[in-house]
Amino acid sequence: DTGVSQDPRHKITKRGQNVTFRCDPISEHNRLYWYRQTLGQGPEFLTYFQNEAQLEKSRLLSDRFSAERPKGSFSTLEIQRTEQGDSAMYLCASSLRENYNEQFFGPGTRLTVL
Amino acid sequence: DAKTTQPPSMDCAEGRAANLPCNHSTISGNEYVYWYRQIHSQGPQYIIHGLKNNETNEMASLIITEDRKSSTLILPHATLRDTAVYYCIVIKAQGGSEKLVFGKGTKLTVNP
Chain A residues with CB inside 8 Å of B32's CB? Predict the structure, then answer.
Protein backbone atom coordinates (compact mmCIF):
# COMPACT_ATOMS: atom_id res chain seq x y z
CA ASP A 1 0.00 0.00 0.00
CA THR A 2 1.60 3.25 -1.18
CA GLY A 3 -0.89 5.53 0.54
CA VAL A 4 -2.55 6.51 -2.73
CA SER A 5 -6.07 5.16 -3.04
CA GLN A 6 -8.38 4.96 -6.02
CA ASP A 7 -12.07 4.29 -6.24
CA PRO A 8 -13.63 2.26 -7.70
CA ARG A 9 -11.12 -0.49 -8.40
CA HIS A 10 -13.23 -1.86 -11.23
CA LYS A 11 -15.91 -0.28 -13.38
CA ILE A 12 -17.96 -1.90 -16.10
CA THR A 13 -20.13 0.41 -18.15
CA LYS A 14 -22.00 0.47 -21.40
CA ARG A 15 -20.83 2.53 -24.35
CA GLY A 16 -22.15 6.05 -24.17
CA GLN A 17 -22.39 6.23 -20.39
CA ASN A 18 -20.42 8.66 -18.24
CA VAL A 19 -18.03 7.44 -15.58
CA THR A 20 -16.10 9.19 -12.81
CA PHE A 21 -13.05 7.94 -10.96
CA ARG A 22 -11.60 9.28 -7.74
CA CYS A 23 -8.02 9.44 -6.53
CA ASP A 24 -6.91 10.29 -2.99
CA PRO A 25 -3.18 11.09 -2.97
CA ILE A 26 -0.78 11.04 -0.05
CA SER A 27 -1.89 14.05 1.96
CA GLU A 28 1.26 16.17 1.83
CA HIS A 29 1.91 15.57 -1.88
CA ASN A 30 1.24 18.62 -3.98
CA ARG A 31 1.59 16.96 -7.39
CA LEU A 32 -1.05 14.54 -8.69
CA TYR A 33 -0.84 12.67 -12.01
CA TRP A 34 -3.24 10.58 -14.07
CA TYR A 35 -1.98 7.87 -16.42
CA ARG A 36 -3.74 5.33 -18.61
CA GLN A 37 -2.49 1.82 -19.29
CA THR A 38 -3.75 -0.61 -21.91
CA LEU A 39 -2.88 -4.28 -22.04
CA GLY A 40 0.76 -4.98 -22.79
CA GLN A 41 1.77 -1.33 -22.77
CA GLY A 42 3.42 0.90 -20.21
CA PRO A 43 1.38 3.63 -18.55
CA GLU A 44 0.76 6.77 -20.66
CA PHE A 45 0.58 10.23 -19.15
CA LEU A 46 -2.80 11.97 -19.28
CA THR A 47 -2.59 15.05 -17.08
CA TYR A 48 -1.17 16.45 -13.88
CA PHE A 49 -2.00 18.94 -11.17
CA GLN A 50 0.14 21.03 -8.92
CA ASN A 51 -2.10 21.72 -5.97
CA GLU A 52 -5.44 22.64 -7.57
CA ALA A 53 -3.99 23.87 -10.87
CA GLN A 54 -4.07 21.58 -13.88
CA LEU A 55 -0.73 22.35 -15.53
CA GLU A 56 -0.48 19.94 -18.44
CA LYS A 57 -2.79 17.77 -20.49
CA SER A 58 -1.75 15.11 -22.98
CA ARG A 59 -3.23 15.08 -26.45
CA LEU A 60 -4.58 11.68 -25.38
CA LEU A 61 -7.02 13.58 -23.19
CA SER A 62 -9.84 14.23 -25.64
CA ASP A 63 -12.63 16.68 -24.89
CA ARG A 64 -14.65 13.79 -23.45
CA PHE A 65 -12.20 13.63 -20.57
CA SER A 66 -12.09 16.10 -17.72
CA ALA A 67 -10.09 16.10 -14.53
CA GLU A 68 -10.37 18.24 -11.45
CA ARG A 69 -8.56 18.62 -8.18
CA PRO A 70 -10.63 20.96 -6.03
CA LYS A 71 -8.81 22.38 -3.04
CA GLY A 72 -5.66 20.56 -4.08
CA SER A 73 -6.58 17.34 -2.32
CA PHE A 74 -8.41 14.47 -4.03
CA SER A 75 -8.88 14.39 -7.78
CA THR A 76 -11.59 13.12 -10.10
CA LEU A 77 -11.32 11.97 -13.68
CA GLU A 78 -14.55 11.93 -15.68
CA ILE A 79 -15.07 10.32 -19.05
CA GLN A 80 -18.21 11.33 -20.89
CA ARG A 81 -19.88 9.26 -23.59
CA THR A 82 -17.54 6.33 -23.07
CA GLU A 83 -16.26 4.37 -26.05
CA GLN A 84 -14.87 0.84 -26.19
CA GLY A 85 -11.43 2.32 -26.81
CA ASP A 86 -11.55 3.90 -23.36
CA SER A 87 -11.24 0.45 -21.79
CA ALA A 88 -8.00 0.56 -19.83
CA MET A 89 -6.46 0.81 -16.38
CA TYR A 90 -6.51 4.38 -15.09
CA LEU A 91 -3.67 5.06 -12.67
CA CYS A 92 -3.21 7.94 -10.29
CA ALA A 93 0.10 8.96 -8.77
CA SER A 94 1.28 11.66 -6.40
CA SER A 95 4.63 13.16 -5.53
CA LEU A 96 6.38 15.69 -3.32
CA ARG A 97 8.13 18.91 -4.33
CA GLU A 98 11.48 17.51 -3.14
CA ASN A 99 11.43 14.82 -5.84
CA TYR A 100 8.60 15.01 -8.32
CA ASN A 101 10.02 12.10 -10.29
CA GLU A 102 9.53 9.69 -7.37
CA GLN A 103 5.87 9.10 -7.89
CA PHE A 104 3.67 6.94 -5.69
CA PHE A 105 1.03 5.11 -7.66
CA GLY A 106 -2.37 3.92 -6.59
CA PRO A 107 -3.73 0.47 -7.48
CA GLY A 108 -5.63 1.81 -10.47
CA THR A 109 -9.21 1.70 -11.69
CA ARG A 110 -9.87 -0.86 -14.39
CA LEU A 111 -12.52 0.37 -16.81
CA THR A 112 -14.33 -1.97 -19.16
CA VAL A 113 -16.65 -0.42 -21.73
CA LEU A 114 -19.10 -2.89 -23.27
CA ASP B 1 13.32 13.20 -22.67
CA ALA B 2 15.79 10.59 -23.90
CA LYS B 3 14.51 7.32 -25.30
CA THR B 4 15.41 4.05 -23.61
CA THR B 5 15.83 0.53 -24.95
CA GLN B 6 15.27 -2.56 -22.81
CA PRO B 7 15.06 -6.27 -23.62
CA PRO B 8 11.43 -7.39 -23.68
CA SER B 9 11.94 -10.28 -21.29
CA MET B 10 14.45 -11.95 -18.99
CA ASP B 11 14.53 -14.96 -16.71
CA CYS B 12 16.34 -15.37 -13.43
CA ALA B 13 16.65 -18.19 -10.91
CA GLU B 14 15.40 -17.51 -7.41
CA GLY B 15 18.23 -16.45 -5.11
CA ARG B 16 20.48 -15.36 -7.96
CA ALA B 17 21.21 -11.80 -9.00
CA ALA B 18 19.01 -10.30 -11.69
CA ASN B 19 20.80 -7.82 -13.94
CA LEU B 20 18.46 -5.73 -16.06
CA PRO B 21 20.10 -3.60 -18.77
CA CYS B 22 18.91 -0.32 -20.24
CA ASN B 23 20.36 1.67 -23.12
CA HIS B 24 19.89 5.43 -23.16
CA SER B 25 22.50 6.60 -25.65
CA THR B 26 20.89 10.03 -26.19
CA ILE B 27 20.78 10.96 -22.52
CA SER B 28 21.73 14.55 -21.80
CA GLY B 29 23.72 15.94 -18.92
CA ASN B 30 20.78 17.00 -16.78
CA GLU B 31 18.77 13.81 -17.16
CA TYR B 32 18.45 11.18 -14.47
CA VAL B 33 17.89 7.45 -14.86
CA TYR B 34 14.88 6.17 -12.93
CA TRP B 35 13.72 2.61 -12.49
CA TYR B 36 10.18 1.56 -11.69
CA ARG B 37 8.59 -1.86 -11.60
CA GLN B 38 5.03 -3.04 -11.96
CA ILE B 39 3.89 -6.26 -10.40
CA HIS B 40 0.87 -7.78 -12.09
CA SER B 41 -2.38 -5.93 -11.39
CA GLN B 42 -0.67 -3.25 -9.30
CA GLY B 43 0.44 0.30 -9.99
CA PRO B 44 4.10 0.99 -10.79
CA GLN B 45 6.52 1.19 -7.87
CA TYR B 46 9.59 3.42 -7.68
CA ILE B 47 12.82 1.47 -7.18
CA ILE B 48 15.85 3.73 -7.52
CA HIS B 49 17.35 6.59 -9.51
CA GLY B 50 20.76 8.04 -10.32
CA LEU B 51 22.57 10.71 -12.28
CA LYS B 52 26.08 9.43 -12.84
CA ASN B 53 27.24 7.69 -9.69
CA ASN B 54 26.27 4.17 -8.77
CA GLU B 55 23.43 4.02 -6.29
CA THR B 56 22.21 1.39 -3.85
CA ASN B 57 19.17 1.17 -1.64
CA GLU B 58 17.33 -1.57 0.18
CA MET B 59 15.69 -2.76 -3.02
CA ALA B 60 18.39 -2.66 -5.67
CA SER B 61 21.62 -1.26 -7.04
CA LEU B 62 21.94 0.95 -10.08
CA ILE B 63 25.12 0.91 -12.12
CA ILE B 64 25.52 3.71 -14.68
CA THR B 65 28.35 3.54 -17.20
CA GLU B 66 30.89 6.33 -17.22
CA ASP B 67 29.58 7.73 -20.51
CA ARG B 68 26.03 7.45 -19.07
CA LYS B 69 24.78 5.81 -22.25
CA SER B 70 23.61 2.69 -20.46
CA SER B 71 22.76 1.41 -17.01
CA THR B 72 22.03 -1.85 -15.20
CA LEU B 73 19.57 -2.45 -12.41
CA ILE B 74 20.72 -5.21 -10.10
CA LEU B 75 18.44 -7.17 -7.79
CA PRO B 76 21.09 -8.97 -5.72
CA HIS B 77 19.02 -11.93 -4.55
CA ALA B 78 15.90 -12.23 -6.66
CA THR B 79 12.79 -13.72 -5.11
CA LEU B 80 9.55 -14.90 -6.70
CA ARG B 81 7.97 -11.62 -5.62
CA ASP B 82 10.38 -9.74 -7.88
CA THR B 83 8.59 -11.12 -10.93
CA ALA B 84 7.35 -7.93 -12.60
CA VAL B 85 7.78 -5.58 -15.53
CA TYR B 86 10.74 -3.27 -14.97
CA TYR B 87 10.79 0.15 -16.59
CA CYS B 88 13.88 2.28 -17.18
CA ILE B 89 12.98 5.95 -17.58
CA VAL B 90 15.23 8.90 -18.39
CA ILE B 91 13.90 12.22 -17.21
CA LYS B 92 15.15 15.73 -16.62
CA ALA B 93 15.86 17.00 -13.17
CA GLN B 94 13.22 19.12 -11.49
CA GLY B 95 11.79 21.99 -13.44
CA GLY B 96 9.47 20.34 -15.92
CA SER B 97 6.24 18.49 -15.59
CA GLU B 98 8.05 15.42 -14.36
CA LYS B 99 5.62 13.22 -16.24
CA LEU B 100 7.02 9.74 -16.54
CA VAL B 101 7.33 8.32 -20.06
CA PHE B 102 7.11 4.54 -19.82
CA GLY B 103 8.22 2.22 -22.61
CA LYS B 104 7.26 -1.44 -22.66
CA GLY B 105 9.88 -2.37 -20.09
CA THR B 106 11.46 -5.75 -19.38
CA LYS B 107 9.29 -8.55 -18.09
CA LEU B 108 11.41 -10.32 -15.48
CA THR B 109 10.36 -13.80 -14.50
CA VAL B 110 11.99 -15.25 -11.40
CA ASN B 111 11.86 -19.03 -11.49
CA PRO B 112 11.94 -21.33 -8.44
Answer: 101
**Cβ neighbours for A62, distance < 8 A, ≥ 6 positions apart:** none
Do A2 and A105 meet the contact criterion of CB atoms below 8 Å apart?
yes
Strand segments, DSSP code E, in chain B are: 9-13, 18-23, 31-38, 45-50, 55-56, 61-64, 70-75, 84-92, 106-111
In tens, the pLDDT along A10-52 reads 999 999 999 999 999 999 999 999 999 999 999 999 999 999 9
Q: For every residue of A34-76, which 3-state class applies, written as one string?
A: EEEECCCCCCEEEEEEECCEEEEECCCCCCCEEEECHHHCCEE
- From B94, B97, B102, residue closest to A42, measured CB to CB: B102
- Residues 6 or more apart from B101 whose CB is under 8 A from it? A45, B1, B89, B91
Partners of residue A50 in chain B, C-beta under 8 Å: none
Report the greatest alpha carbon distance in chain B: 44
Mean pLDDT for chain A overall: 94
What is the C-alpha to C-alpha distance for residues A75 and B62, in angstroms, rounded to an integer?
A: 34
Question: Closest residue of B to A47, CA-based?
Answer: B99
Which of A2, A56, A107 comes nearest B99 by C-beta? A56
SS3 B3: coil
d(CA B8, CA B30): 27
The minimum CA-CA distance between A106 and chain B, rounded to whole Å, is: 6
